[in-house]
Amino acid sequence: MPENGISEFELSAWLLGALDPDRAEELAQAVARSPALAERASARQRVLERLPSLRARPMPIPGSDWRGQLVARRVHAGNLGEDALGEGLRPGDRVELRVSALADPDRRELIAMTRDALGRWDVVWPEHADERTPVEALERDADGAVKVSLSASPTIGTQRWLLVFPETPWPVDWSLPRAIRWEQLMARISTGAVPLFTFELEVSAP
Fold first, then answer.
1. What architecture is domain 53-203?
2. In 60, 119, 160, 165, which residue has its Cα 20 to 30 A from 18's Cα atom?
3. Lowest mean pLDDT: which of 3-12, 37-46, 173-182?
């Protein structure tokens, strides 16, 4: 078992800001207490910094409501990276991403999240059961990378996004309030057991 019970995957998620605030604080305290864990974190950070960043480009927006522009049936994905994407974007602008090296893609579905001002992750896709998107239904490029197309949210400034790929069908009780509907998934993410890809969008005022 990894030292302190913290896997490399969870350590990466912490460094990328992909854990919930409570778990992130626990890891921060553990790193502060343990020189060995601090060295692991530094080594992992160096690995993450060498990863290729996601590339994005603005696209024309068809339609009005930005959440309706998460065209999950034509999603294209990208490589894990932390560099800001698409500078000069406006709210609602479409962005294309590519996600490669996704293990067992045909056994997974796409869930998109954004981070709010309090550091909480909020699922923005899917919002309803009929919007669920298995990866096998998504378009892929010649290299086999999954294509993901999404729209910048209305928030001005830096938007932190997370693409999550749990096994499908992920159990969701759609009758639950939105605030607790995804708690099981967040708990699973915090263990490092779910592939995820994080990126940022820099969005300017219209």
1. Sandwich (2.60)
2. 60
3. 3-12
